[in-house]
Automatic annotation (TrEMBL):
GO biological process, one term: defense response to bacterium
InterPro entries xref list: Colicin/pyocin_DNase_dom_sf, His-Me_finger_sf, Pyocin_killer, Pyosin/cloacin_T_dom
Keywords: Antibiotic, Antimicrobial, Bacteriocin, Endonuclease, Hydrolase, Nuclease
Gene Ontology MF terms in the entry: endonuclease activity; hydrolase activity; signaling receptor binding
Species the sequence originates in: Photorhabdus namnaonensis
Family (UniProt): Belongs to the colicin/pyosin nuclease family.
Pfam name, any one: Col-Pyo_DNase
Protein's UniProt keywords contain Hydrolase: yes
Pyosin/cloacin translocation domain span: 4-35
EC class: hydrolase
Annotated protein name in UniProt: Pyocin-S2
EC number(s) on file: 3.1.-.-
Length: 104
């Protein structure tokens, strides 16, 4: 008994967020539509308390887990809804710039 192998041209991959997952026919599993979302592009509400920071708090940004969110900034942003991470980032740095201690 032989087997037929059909090779179809593979389409050029444009984006890896949207696929139809097709299983081998003998498994009896229907195709599944799969969509991946990037959390950075999703809306969200700010939570968390931040941490008390002192001195040059940004020195830790490139180390281990990075710099903590200063508690005074977390207090100002907590509960606010942002359309995406870029909107949050703009608001974060605006608040840092408005804080006399952090903007030194």
């Amino acid at each position: 008994m032989g087997s037929d192998i059909e090779s179809l041209p593979i389409p050029e991959e444009k984006d890896f967020r949207d696929y139809i997952l097709v299983f081998p026919a003998n498994l009896g599993i229907k195709p599944i539509y799969v969509m991946f979302n990037t959390p950075r592009n999703q809306p969200g509400v700010v939570t968390g308390r931040g941490q008390k920071v002192e001195g040059n708090w940004l020195n830790l940004a490139g180390q281990d887990m990075g710099a903590s969110i200063p508690s005074q900034i977390a207090d100002k942003l907590r509960g606010r809804t942002f359309n995406n991470f870029d909107d949050f980032r703009r608001a974060f740095w605006k608040e840092v710039g408005n804080d006399p201690e952090l903007s030194k």
